[in-house]
Amino acid sequence: MDWTAIKEYLPLYREALLLTMKIGWIGILLAFLLGLLCAAILHFHTPILRGIVKIYIELFRNTPLLVQLFFIYFGLPKIGVRITAQTCGILGLGLLGGAYMAETFRSGLESVEKIQTESALSLGMSPLQTFRYVIQPQAVALSVPGFMANVIFLLKETSVFSAISLMDLMFTAKDLIGLYYKTTECLFLLVIFYLIMLLPVSLLGSVVERRMRHAGFGD
Amino acid sequence: MQDLGIDLLFKGSNFLRLLNGLWVALRISLISVVISIGLGLLVGALMTLQNKVLKVIMRIYLEIVRIMPQMVLLFIVFFGSTRVFGWNISAEISSIIVFTFWGTAEMGDLVRGALISIPRHQYESAQALGLSTVQTYVHIIIPQTIRRLIPLSINLITRMIKTTSLVMMIGIVEVLKVGQQIIEANRRTSPNAAFGIFATVFFLYFIVCWPISKLAGFLEKKWS
Amino acid sequence: MDEKELLRLEHLHKEFGGNVVLKDFDLSVKKGEVIVIIGPSGCGKSTLLRCINGLEAVQSGKITFEGAPVEKNSKNISQIRQKIGMVFQSYDLFPHKTVLQNIILAPCKVQKRKKEEVEQEALQLLERVGLNDKKDAFPRELSGGQKQRVAIVRALCMHPDILLFDEVTAALDPEMVREVLDTMLELAKQGSTMLIVTHEMSFARAVADRILFLDGGELVEESNSPKDFFDHPKTERAQKFLQTFEYE
Question: ipTM of the assembly?
């Protein structure tokens, strides 16, 4: 292992990490909001929108992010929609993640038992109050493990950004290998930086999941 | 539509080439899935054993798969192995190794989950009837876990297929790469082909994955 | 007994996809009455209670509560539901809230009453059912019988004019049935208006002012004397049904 090379590459990787994290987390935020919106549309049986949401979810859950990015980044400009690589990364991750988040939130809402709605209604609560005080808090808790799994999945998916020339971790590693042939060092740093990015989230996910399981309300 | 590259699909053998590319991706994922299911059954059974060392090893294995992007693993196997061990592994073999490494962990975890979901008394009553451990698994436990596992393994197939799109990054000419080549070759005559070609690749993936995940969802509902 | 009519059902008809659960059903409930509804499973007892609370829509017929029509999706349904307390068979406490929070949620949010006042009342009610030490417990920490008593308190705290009980002891272990039935018996003694669906025959006999026997969605037999009904049922279907509870 050539430690001087590693020291030399370190700032480049650090910069790439920041870029990857930035795009990753903004994309995840977008995915979160989009997922909430879609789950709400499905939950409240909104006509027309419901059909659109269903098609969107199926399309994006059944195609690879890489292909989605290629279409958005190289395909869309041909019909006049031009966006930067960064926006494309955020948009792609947001659209992919939105479809996964929507499914997670929807199944969270579905797993709140029907009797909960009925007993809230029987106490005279309006449908909105029932949702706000009874259904939504339980659905959120039930969705947490799935949500954490989606976050990890989406952070991992950022590794395809290099394909649309975003200078993320993958791009940096590939670039440096091509330039200096220090393959071992570059791959070593690549693994270390992905660990920095993902290990805390993964550990947090395990802790949260364990807590939800043990402190899980219900019987 | 001429400008958006749909016409290119019917030019020469372009569409056939795309389908060929799709087959390359599918072949890699199918081979990997088959090996993963086999190894996954074994690994899943190992994970239920109460062996401390084994538990730690499995935990680390699962955690690596959980947090390392498949792309990183692909790079390590494809570029790293040549460098460190001097092996010359082809891109296709590299991707099968990586996807199997990943799929085995996923499958193993599913198998473990299915095995521990079988109530304790099923094991106990089998033993009370005098069945050996092997007999207990063969006649009692495995038949019950298979129903739970089939929909989940089908799901793994779609995820595997979607992930194979990554192999173009280590130089395998699969459907996305073929698409790129077609666009490149016709750059002058159809400058806007990227739209139509990439849309086609998008729908090809969808047409392959969607029925499979519908089937998995259907079986899951039917057997739950 | 006050003779004021609280609830009136006229020609109620309800079916699920061609399956008739209530056939031309009439009922009038006066203030202070305790009515027990019995009958074989699937006879429409539970559906009846759910219709009264507007949880199920009816195909035809009319439900009137204190002069106002009860309809599943009408605007004022939540006003009416505040006056109709209901306790379900399965534990329906909100699992993410403590016992006290479960009780005060609807009075505070729906009736906009003061939190302090509601809390005080909730604690008094909990004391009456012997659960004031559980006020900060979560539902999962309670036994089945305790959960059902809390559910009763939660319904009471809304000051309902009538209480509906839908087989509230059916999912309980035998040793917990008693504590819940005792609570209900006490409510009856205090003059609450109650509509009770149950399979506990000796309880029905002890608590009822009026017994309704339902079978196949129809009122088969009605009696103002529980003793007469249980000792000398008039109809053959009621005799057969009561026999299934005897062991010889």
Answer: 0.87
